[in-house]
Structure formats: C-alpha cells, structure tokens
Amino acid sequence: MRLLRWCAPVVASLVVIAALPYGGAEALPYTREEAEPPPIPRATPASVGLSPASLSEATDLLRRFVAEKKIAGAVAAVARKGKVAYLEPVGVQDLETRAPMTERSLFRIYSMTKPVTAAAVMMLHEAGRFSLTDPVSKYLAEFKDVRVALPVGASRPPAREITIQDLLLHTSGLSHRSSELYRTSRVRLRTDTLPQFITKIVHAPLMEDPGTRYRYSEGTTVLGRLVEIWSGKPFDVFLDERVFKPLGMTETGFWVRPEQRARLAMVYQSARGAGLTPFEIETEVPFTDRPTLLEGAVGLVSTVPDYLRFSQMLLNRGELNGARILSAKTVEMMTANGLSDAVLKARGGTRGWGLGNVDIALDTGEYGWDGSAGTIFTIDPRRDLITILMWQSVPADPDSLRQRFKTLVQRALVD
User: Fold this and answer.
1) CA–CA separation, 128 and 327 (whole Å)
2) For the chain: N or C, fewer Cβ within 10 A?
3) pLDDT at residue 9, as a whole number
4) Domains in the chain, please, with CATH?
C-alpha cells in the first residue's frame, strides 16, 4: 500500500483575535504560505491491532467498484492509536485523461465542511466572543425579523428567537439549500457575498419554530458570517490562520488553486447500463474558480490526509502534535448529543447530533459526517479509530459502499 508523507503541523499561536467589525462585502485575497511538511507517525496495520488481510479485502472492494464502473476512483485511510495504518488510492481522477487517484487527490467535501466551521465557531466561544444561548439577532440584526411559514403563504413570528446553539444543532427552523423554497428564492448562490446570503435567507420563512425539530440546514453558512463578525477577519482567512495552518492542512480551502487543478477529481453520475458520465454539480461557479460566497456548510475542497489531520485533532480532544486548537472540554461537548429529548425522539432516538456538526451513534459514541458528492469520515473514540473515504459521485453512496467498506475495517480490528 502507498503511504503519504504529510505534515506535523506548524505550532501556531492561538492569540485571541481582536473583535473588530467586519462588514466587507467580499473576502479579501491573500497568499497562503506553505512549507514542505515533515513526516508524521505511520505504522503497519498489525502494530496497531489491524488485520492486513481484512484491509486488503477493503482495497479489493474499492477496486471492484471501480471495475464495475460504480465509481471512477477513491482514496481511503484508516488511522489507529494516532498512526496511519492504511492510505490507499484506487482508480482514476478523470476517466478521459486517465489521471490516477493519488494520496494528494482533491475532493469537494461538501457537508464535511460543517465540522470545520463548527470548530472555528467553538474556538471563538472559548475566547468569550458569544454565548451559545445568544440570539443570532444580537450579531445579525436581520434575524430579528424572521417569520415562520403557515399554510397558503401566510406567516407568523417565531415562538422564540434563533440562538447560536440552534444553528449548530440544526434546530433553527432554517431549511436546506436543495429545498424547493430555497431553490425558488435562490437563497444560495455562489456568486453572492455572505451579507447578501444573510439578507436572502432571513427573507425566506422558517419551516418551524426554533428548537422544535432537527432540520438539516444552511445554518452553518450563517455561522461562517458570524465567525467574520466575532473575529474581525474574512471567514477563509480565519480558517487558514487558526485551523488549517496550525494543523498542517495545506491543501484545504474554498477553491482549487491553479497549481492544484491537475489533482481535482471529476464528479461522475452513474446511470443504469450507461456506466459513468461527468456531472458538474456547481454550474455557476465551479470549484476551480474562487467563489464569492464562502460557505461554512458546503464550501471546502480537501484531501484525505488533510481531513485525517482534522479528525485526529478531534480524536485527541483538541490537539495535534503540539498545536492545541480547542480545549478537551470543548471537544467533548462538541461530540456529545446536544438535541433535546423531544427532538432526539422525533429524529429516531438512536442517533444524536453534536455542536461539532457531527452525527453521533448514541450506543457507541462513534461520530462523523459525510458529503453529498461521496466523502465520509467516522471517528470511534472507544477503539481509537478513524476511517475516511473520498470519491466523487452522484449518488454519493453507490450500492452502500460506505457501510461495506466500514464493515471490513471493523472486521480488521484484532484488539
């Protein structure tokens, strides 16, 4: 198997950023300074309690899906006990050029952006910039005027205001970017600024009163705008300075820079009997162009090794190789269920949701999330285990590949 040299993060200063007002309509351009990363701990599967034979079966599974034209290619990683035991690319990034998948292939991670945004939010919470129970309107006055939808186009004021906690837990009453309401109102356009996005989203009615239902939503992009207000920096600059650089996530950002473009995997759509055809999800502003809208919900591109660093920070309860991003107490709060009993029961009762924008298995404590173009990460604290899968396809999970791969990884555990 191939193993990647990827970085121990540069230890970054965590000096609290002054809360200067940021009202700019557009993120300011900046240059990312990158250093060649030194290697980080790696291990053979057997040395961290994983069966090489079972992991080989996992690779065979991915290769079979490539051969059967269900995906063009993938990159998968498994880390245990703080060491990378498995990092395997299979297939190709582009069926036309036949450029192979590599450990440095780039992927649109869509909703796996949300945990990164949540980490930025909770860093500022630790700095005392807001309280979780603060109404959003304290910082974004437009939210004072939101209304709840009623039948036949009518509306009413909400029973209470939306709080910051509601945005993190998806109990705000806001809707999803793909909802008919938001598509008709063109709430989410990658050509808009974050302030323009805020203006649009408050003009669309809430689906229900805040705090009454879990509804997966665009609330995390609202949080990106709040990060700007609390920190006094454009959202992308804050993430780069306070998250990506300290963790050594040199490949992660809101667009694919010119020098990265040859490594961006193509999205493919599967059609019965027709194999795979290219599918451009973002037709107005592709990920190879710098978007005006910096979306905390779905905007990032990344690599498997970069997201593995972020995941290892969470598993380490806020720290990676000397760079402390969050306190252990905060990470524990982020990765515990935050839904009320009533909302949890309505969601099904077996899976919670945390402030870290992660889905949580209540019986095991395993947590993680996925993306709508075929990416997923899971963290199992009990087993000290991280699993990451990335490919680019619509639908995102052909023939339950995610669960089938995860089952083989779990079968590989020998201690």
Assistant:
1) 13
2) C
3) 38
4) 45-112+234-412 (3.40.710.10), 124-228 (no CATH)
